[in-house]
Amino acid sequence: MNDERFQKAEFAAWVGIVGNAILALLKGVVGFTAQSKALLADSAHSASDVAGSFAVLIGLRAAKKPPDADHPYGHGKAESIASIVVSVLLLVVGVEIGISAVKSIWQGVEEAPRAYALIAIGISLIVKEAMFQYKYRLGKRLNSQALITNAWEHRSDVYSSIAALAGVFGAVLGHYFNVKMLYYLDPLAGLFVSLLVLKMGYSLVKESIHTTMDHVLHHEDAADLVSTVQTIKGVITVDDLRAREHGHYVIVDIKISVNPRISVLEGHDIARTVKQQLMKRFHHVSDVFVHVNPYDAGYPYKNNTDTELNDYPNIFH
Predict the structure, then answer these.
(1) Which residues, at least 6 apart from 210, have a Cβ–Cβ distance to it below 8 Å?
(2) Cα(317)–Cα(312) distance, rounded to whole angstroms?
(3) DSSP secondary structure of 45-69
(4) Is residue 191 within 8 Å of 94, Cβ to Cβ?
(5) How would you class 107 by CB atoms within 10 Å of its CB: exposed for 0-12, middle for 13-18, buried for 19 or more?
(6) What is the per-residue pLDDT across 4-43, written as a single tens digit (0 to 9) for each?
(7) Strand 237-246 to 285-294 pairing
(8) Cα separation of 217 and 60, whole Å?
(9) Alpha carbon distance 197, 219 (integer Å)
(10) Percentages (nearest 5) of helix, strand, coil residues in the chain
(11) What are the pLDDT digits (tens) for 300-314?
(12) Which range, of 3-7, 16-20, 73-77, 117-121, averages the lowest pLDDT?
C-alpha cells in the first residue's frame, strides 16, 4: 500500500471511529433517559462500528508493511482479515440486540419512550448516511475491501436507525392516543434492528472469507492484462495468464512464447519488459512472474512495430 493510499484510508478509519463514538454516546444517553429499547439497540450498533473501525485501522497499518521473509507477497490480506473481524462483531451485536428485545417484549412494556428520542435518531440517520457515502466511494477508489466492508456497516446502521425511528414514533403515538399496544413497537423495532444486523453480518462474513482466499480473476477481468502483454515487442503469444487477488492488489503469473532462436539474455529482457509494463499500466498489480517458452519454429514470428513500448536488440526485429 503506497503512502497516499494509506493516509486516505487511515483518515477514513478515524472518521468512522470518532463519528461512531459520538453517535453511540448520544444515542446511548438519550435512549436510557428516554427509555427507548430501539434507540439503545441502535446505540449498541454504533458502538460495534467503533470496534469495527479500529479493526479496519489495524488491518490497514498491517497491510502497509513491506514484504518480508515470512510474507514474501506482502501483507495485503490483513485488510481482508480485518473485514472478517468487523463482520463477526456485527453478528455478535445482532444476537445481543435480539435477546434484549425479546426479553423486553416477554416482560411487557408499561410506558412509551420520550418523544425527544426521535431527534437523536434523525441526527444519526444524517451522519451515518454521510459516512457511508464517503467511505464506500473512497474504498472503491482505493480498492480497499476493509473500507468497503466498514462502509456497509454504516449503511446497515442507517437501516437500523430507520427501524428505530418507526418503532419510537409508533410508541410515541400510542402514548398520545392512549393505545398501550403501540408501546410494543419500540422493542419490536429493536428486534427488527437485530435481524438487519445479523443479515448484514452474515453477508459480509461470506464476502470477507471469499476475499481472503486466493482466487484468480475472471477471463474478462484479465483481458486487459493479456492485451497489454500481446503488444510488447518480442512476445509472440500469451500461453497462459493467471492473476491472483491478494488482498487489495493482484499478483500475475504469466507464460509467454518468444522466438526460440534468440539468446537467453534477449528472452530475459522480454520477460523484464513484460513485468515492467504490467506494473506500470496497472497500479493494482504488485508483482509479476514471467515464464518464457520457445514458440513453435514453424510459425511466422510476430514483428511488432511499436517501438515506444520497448526497444532492445533482437536477431529477428
Answers:
(1) none
(2) 9
(3) HHHHHHHHHHHHHHHHHHHTSPP-S
(4) no
(5) exposed
(6) 666 777 788 788 889 888 998 999 999 999 988 888 888 8
(7) unpaired
(8) 23
(9) 35
(10) 65, 10, 25
(11) 545 544 444 445 444
(12) 73-77
Measured N-to-C along each axis, helices 78-107 and 145-176 cross at an angle, to the nearest 10 degrees, of: 10
Rounded to a whole number, what is the distance in angstroms from the first to the last CA of the chain?
Answer: 38
Q: Edge to edge, what strands does the sheet with 249-258 contain?
A: 237-246, 249-258, 285-294
Which residues have CB under 8 Å from 155's CB, separation 6+? 128, 129, 132, 136
* Residues in a beta bridge with 242: 253
- Whole-number Å distance between alpha carbons of 85 and 55: 7
* Cell numbers that stand for 65 in this block: 508493511
3-state secondary structure of 234: coil
For residue 211, the one-letter residue type is T
Pairwise CA distance, residues 63 & 60, whole Å: 5
Beta bridge partners of 288: 252
Dihedral of the alpha carbons of 91, 94, 95, 98, in degrees to the nearest 10: -160
Q: Record the cell numbers describing residue 59, joined without a space.
A: 488491518
For 21, what's the count of Cα atoms within 13 Å in the CB-facing half-sphere?
Answer: 9
Q: How many other CB atoms sit within 10 Å of the CB of residue 25?
A: 14
Domains and CATH numbers, the chain: 3-212 (1.20.1510.10), 219-294 (3.30.70.1350)
